[in-house]
Specification:
With 575 residues, the chain is α+β, with helices and mostly antiparallel strands. 51% of the residues lie in helices and 19% in strands. The chain binds guanosine-5'-triphosphate. This is diguanylate cyclase.
Amino acid sequence: MSLKTRILGLAATLLVLAATASWLAYQQLSEDIIQRWGQQVAEIQVRYDSARLLQSLEREIGLARQMADSSALVKWAEQPDNKALEQDALRQAESFRTNFRDNSYFLALRKNNHYYYNNARNEFAGKQFRYVLDPNKPDDAWFFQLISQGRDFHLNVNPDTELGVTKLWIDVLMRNEQGDIVGMVGTGLNLDDFLKDIVDINQDGITTLFVDHNGAIQLYRDRNYIDFATIVKPEGQKNTVDLLFDEPEDKQQILGMLAMLKKRSDQAGQVESGFVTVDGREHLAGVAYLPAIGWFEITLLDLNTLVPRSYLLPLVAVFLVALLVTLLLFHYIIQSRILKPIMGLESAVKRVREGNFSLPRLDKPDNEIGRLADHFEKMTLSMKDSTRELENKVAQRTDELSRLARIDPLTGLKNRRGLDELLDEEIQRSRRQDNRFGLIWLDIDHFKAINDQLGHQAGDEILCRVALWLKAGVRPYDAPGRWGGDEFVVILSPCDAHTLSQIANRIRHSVEEESRKTGTPVTVSVGGYLCQPGDTSDGILREADRALYEAKEQGRNRVCIVSRNDETPVPETEL
Ligand SMILES: Nc1nc2c(ncn2[C@@H]2O[C@H](COP(=O)(O)OP(=O)(O)OP(=O)(O)O)[C@@H](O)[C@H]2O)c(=O)[nH]1
């Protein structure tokens, strides 16, 4: 796998890992933030809603309590048939009516179960006695139930069928000095107005409801859930708060919170919160106990509406785009600073390995790779120089060897190989140009005897001297050479019969004369042949050898020129 593929793979893996980690962190963090925030908001909202309810009710409850404590009312309740007391009491009740927010009151006497009522329109002035409460009538059960429970104060959401209104009733027991219950007074608040003020708040995602100490729903925006006349309903038939939740664990959680808060009712301002599912949506529920009225306030926050996670999505998008840009940048840097220079370097190394020292322009980023490329370039240049130098030396050496291979080391003349090559060239030229050339083959006479008498060293010196005389005796463009032992060959080109004879004789004479001067006289026998176009190398040598043989045969120290049958041998000519 190439480095580029690996780096791209690594970058892609990193991208996926980073994106996954970021997404998980975002999920966790956003949930955490929303939970913390939600819990604080839930607590604030619960306290705020509780305060609003209590603020609305406190004054009414206070007035109802004052009314229940009114001595005129208590006295009359003890003697309900006393008309004077009745007048007094009803006057008193009417004064309370004008103070109640709803400008209405009710008054029920235990002794005769008489129920009195007047409303804002003073509709029942002078006829406040409305009816007699019947213990066997379900609509009147509230009165008897409250007295039997002996709870001094009670809030009751109840439709009054006689009066045709649904109200939130504030019921306060009247007690005489001995503490006996003598009746009940209170006022009612129009439920619709009250719900509008306290519960139907126009805040998206926030639901407020109130439940009584048993968990029965008392104030809720959906009237169908309100547990009207809860006091007279047996347990199990009440619309309790758990009806709002889908999951059994949520129901248990909420009921558990109610129980816990009730237990800690002495600690003011306690709020419990937890996550629940309502209508399939996750909500944060905040619950507070209101000891003043014996109710619980529950606030449900739909967190997805209040703080949709999508709010934070642009953040994730920005992060992902930043990540992508970073990776692209990373890829660009890796590509331009590492991969491209390395690939260039690799192809350069390949070229050099194949013997091509001309490098393309290498990328040299300002890093280790750039420095490596620089070193490689310099190394290649130096290799190129030394290779060229080496090649030159080898060529020189080869030329030298080639020259030496064609030179006789003793005399410095061409050796047999050099003469062979030259002979071939002359044969070619003769054929091409249709001209003739001469070949002289000479041999020192009785050289063996010289060697034997004077020694091999002296023999060598004589060979060298003969070579010098030979060179001096030919034309500058003729080629003398040592064929081997004491035999020499001269190629004369161009040449004719006369020149051949003339030079052959001059050589023979020169060796005889010059050697005499050295004190060691030697003579040579010379054979000559005038080569014709079309002659072969073997034929030429054979003819020259034959001429030399003739010269030897005729007594040595003489020249013998042979020619083809159609030519006359040239007689020896003295110089
Ligand atoms: N000193 C010396 N002697 C050589 C060299 N090469 C060959 N010889 C000797 O040269 C002699 C050649 O003798 P031949 O050509 O056979 O006979 P020759 O004595 O010259 O007699 P003819 O040629 O018949 O006149 C031999 O004794 C070789 O040993 C050499 O390089 N140096």
